[in-house]
């Protein structure tokens, strides 16, 4: 049953020849979710502040290094999961070491223009006197954002050596998800 008000409003629309499309209120306020961040949207680097530097002199005790991503694009984008991290060694016997992932659960991070997030890498340093075959000397890190194929090459700025466990099931050197 039509009410008198609805009939008058409908008659006014028909009389003026204006077509009106009904849009649900929820659709009018919904924004499209930001797309995921691509390598081209980001810049990356090691956090080098005093509180962010790993203590590479703590032989046999874990320390952490942090890598950051900043959104340099003109739009918001999201990151979720783990970056890909390959350490390239300075010694000819080092080769490349693809870091294992922690068991932590990733969360989704939205980066607005200019926003930064980071992730940590747990490291297990060794003493300089450790035999060469048991130590890995980092030179560069190839860092690939989650779900991407292009990487950043970052020079390792901290010195030191890491216990070589590139074939271990539970190595002391591994990475955590974005935002952790």
UniProtKB/TrEMBL annotation:
Matches recorded under InterPro entries: DUF4232
Signal peptide feature range: 1-21
A Pfam family assignment: DUF4232
Keywords: Signal
Domain DUF4232: 37-157
This protein's name: DUF4232 domain-containing protein
Top-level taxonomy: Bacteria, Bacillati, Actinomycetota, Actinomycetes, Kitasatosporales
């Amino acid at each position: 049953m039509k009410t008198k008000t609805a009939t008058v409003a409908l008659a006014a629309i028909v009389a003026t020849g204006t077509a009106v499309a009904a849009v649900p209120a929820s659709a009018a306020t919904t924004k499209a979710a930001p797309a995921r961040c691509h390598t081209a949207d980001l810049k990356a680097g090691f956090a080098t502040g005093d509180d962010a530097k790993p203590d590479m002199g703590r032989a046999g005790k874990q320390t952490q290094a942090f890598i950051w991503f900043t959104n340099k694009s003109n739009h918001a984008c999201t990151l979720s999961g783990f970056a890909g991290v390959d350490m390239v060694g300075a010694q000819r016997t080092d080769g490349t070491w693809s870091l294992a992932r922690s068991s932590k659960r990733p969360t989704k991070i939205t980066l607005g223009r200019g926003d930064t997030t980071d992730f940590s890498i747990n490291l297990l340093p060794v003493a300089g006197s450790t035999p060469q075959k048991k130590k890995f000397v980092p030179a560069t890190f190839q860092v690939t954002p989650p779900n991407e194929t292009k990487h950043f090459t970052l020079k390792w700025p901290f010195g030191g050596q890491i216990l070589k466990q590139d074939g271990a099931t539970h190595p002391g050197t591994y990475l955590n998800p974005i935002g952790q």
